[in-house]
Fold this protein.
Amino acid sequence: MWRNTLFGLELIFLLAGCSRKDATSDNMLQFPETEHAEWIVSETDELVPRPIALCSTDSSVFVLGLMDGKWVHEYSLENGKLLGSRVSHGQGPGEVVNAADLCMTKNGFDVYDTDTKRIIEFDDNFQFVSSYPIQADNSAVWEAWRLSDKTALLRGPRFIDDEIITRSLHIVGLNNSDKNGMIFSYGDIAPAVESCPQALALQSVSILSPDRRHFATATTIGGVMEIFDISDDSIAPVLCQYLFNVDFDGQSSYVPDQTQYGFSAITVDNNYLYGAYSGTSDPNGMTRIGVWKWDGTPVKLIETDNLILGMTLTPASKMLVAVIFAGNEFRLAKIKLK
């Protein structure tokens, strides 16, 4: 049945006849080390409760989500106080209609607007710099990230036999470059999901590594994780694993009781991937943080006591910053990494 949850799963794709039992990938969940960490919780000012994305510097946390007509909200990493809100909702230069991602760059930040299919570039003070229209042959684009000034990585839907929806990845040239149009497309379905390719189109969290050479995506239902190596002209799969059980009866779009919940948030550096997950039938159980190398090797399990709704790493990867649910409120919190 449908569940009224804090996590707020608002959209579940119909997976007709899709069943994946006994699908746990034991090797990825065999962590050689487990620790329990206590969040350092800030007395946060008004906070976007369901962040779309988070980024962090050594002094500030930037939370993406529409609040009071603004998309990006800066909070003090030290005390959680709101320092300012930027990027207006709208269709003018430097404005965003429907933000899907916030990504740090070497010179500032990028925001992808799904409505206008543009990556909008800002400097480190969120002053508008440029806008990059996405060339995608009129196809929908769920998310987009600049790989360089000339190319971008796209994630969007693909239809199999005009009926089954799954995901596809593309590298395209940007409008202001000499690499206009499609450069590389990837739509292969790994053996782990070949009986249920629709699972790759479930609600998910995705992220690109700071060096633009690795990409990961993980679903909220079932915890399907995919990892890729990326260049300006190629996408190479590293792994695809069903981490938890997922079972849809094909008669409704509701989530059956036996289905296990996967990931609510992921964040990365150039060496490791951190994923907040449940691994149980409790949709509010995204309290664990798994740490993996980019080849999928498990490194550490961090147990916490709070639902995690978004995560980011400080630049030196010494602090994990998150939006959590604590004391019946959404709060900014942090963990010092060992």
Q: What stands out?
A: The radius of gyration is 19 Å. Residues 1-17, 20-24 have pLDDT under 50 and may be disordered.
